[in-house]
Amino acid sequence: MDNISIQWGSYGQGMGPDMMNWGYGMGWFMGIVYIIFLVTVILGVIYFIKWFAVSSRQGSHQAKTEDSAMEILRKRYAMGEISKEEFEAKKRDLEK
User: Fold this and answer.
1) Is residue 77 assigned to a domain?
2) What is the spatial distance between Cα 22 and Cα 19, in angstroms, rounded to a whole number?
3) Mean pLDDT of 77-94
4) Long-range contacts at 80-86 (CB < 8 A, ≥ 24 apart)
5) Cβ(14)–Cβ(24) below 8 Å
6) Phi, psi (deg, nearest 5) at residue 65
7) Domain count of the fold of the chain
8) Which residue range forms the structural domain that includes residue 34?
9) Could you tell me the pLDDT band of residue 70, with boundaries at 50, 70 and 90?
10) CA-based nearest residue to 73, from 89, 60, 57, 58
11) What Å distances lie between residue 48 and 31, 45, 58, CA to CA?
């Protein structure tokens, strides 16, 4: 019996070589924290990839906006809302 008390005497209460199984339950807690950390990192990477993909597509979005402005201008001219001179002037402005 003295041998066991000497072996565990220097660790303190709840500490020792087998503390993950019978100590304060930190084995399960740290496992959960690790899983939460991994999920957070993975979600952060996915968010960054989506953000990067959207920001790189904004250049092509600009051309679509110009096309839609030209379409609106053509429709306004076709409906008689603007004159031919106005149409030509605005068309030159959009092509610049």
Assistant:
1) yes
2) 5
3) 90
4) none
5) yes
6) -65, -40
7) 1
8) 27-95
9) confident
10) 89
11) 26, 5, 16
Q: How many CA atoms lie within 13 A of 96 on its CB side?
A: 6
Domain assignment of residue 79, yes or no? yes
Mean pLDDT score of the chain, rounded to an integer? 76
Tokens of 49: 């990839």
Give this prediction's pTM: 0.39
49 in a structural domain: yes
pLDDT digits (tens, 9 = 90+) for 12-58: 555 555 555 544 556 778 888 899 999 999 999 999 999 888 887 76
Give domain status of residue 40, yes or no. Answer: yes
- Residue-wise DSSP of the chain: -HHHHHHHHTT-TT-STTHHHHSSSHHHHHHHHHHHHHHHHHHHHHHHHHHHHHHHHHHHHHHHHHHHHHHHHHHHHHTTSS-HHHHHHHHHHHH-
